[in-house]
């Protein structure tokens, strides 16, 4: 691992530990997906070993649920608990308005479901995830029904996107929902995320987009000078 990679892990870990301190006894907690979320799950497990008692967790991916269960973190369902107190997850990009691109781990649909069911959504990330405009350095993931993928890809190209079908080795990447992911890059980034998101939701075959607009309440940013809280 490079020195920068080692530093980024340390920054993510610090932000995740700060997020774990927000969890209180009796809370229902949403668990995100990806490397940063894994740091949070480990930090939450440590707090529980120190005496924290939570009511349960709901994960945005099977991988996160399995990791949580491996640490003895209690798991629940939306049938039993339709509202969560707190959702902690990472992000691939964060703009000054706290709008996000998420879905680098392929769990964007479930992440958005968990976020929408939570009273408070807190993002943890390292400072390199902060951008002035979404979409300039990270592709926008879009979850698509497999049957419609060729049709959706053509319409996304007409919108000016460079579209790539996400793969895993030699085969297409398949989400936990048995869908595919189209990763879209825009030459100048995304100038109007809300307008683009609205247009995308009118394309038949798109299940959900990786644009998380107006959903994050707070962002904890790890960096060389410690953990910064936004706003």
Topology:
Elements: H1 3-20, E1 28-31, H2 35-49, E2 56-59, H3 62-70, E3 86-89, E4 93-94, E5 100-101, H4 108-116, E6 121-126, E7 140-144, H5 149-158, E8 162-165, E9 167-168, E10 171-172, E11 180-185, H6 193-200, E12 206-209, E13 211-212, E14 218-223, E15 226-230
Parallel strand pairs: 1-2, 1-3, 3-6, 6-14
Antiparallel strand pairs: 4-5, 5-13, 7-11, 7-12, 8-11, 9-10, 14-15
Helix pairs in contact: 1-2
Kindly summarize this structure in a few lines.
It is built from six helices and 15 strands. With 231 residues, it is an alpha/beta fold.
Key features of this structure:
globular, 231 residues, Alpha-Beta Plaits, 6 helices, 4-stranded antiparallel beta sheet, Ribose5P_isomerase_type_A, Rossmann fold, EC 5.3.1.6, 6-stranded mixed beta sheet, alpha/beta
Main sheet makeup: 6 strands, mixed
Q: What structural category do the secondary elements indicate?
A: alpha/beta
Shape: globular
CATH architect. name of the largest domain: 3-Layer(aba) Sandwich
Low-confidence stretches: none
Task: Determine the CATH topology of the largest domain.
Answer: Rossmann fold
Strand content: 25-35%
Catalytic activity: aldehydo-D-ribose 5-phosphate = D-ribulose 5-phosphate
Active site: 111
Binding site for substrate: 33-36, 89-92, 102-105, 129
Organism: Ktedonospora formicarum
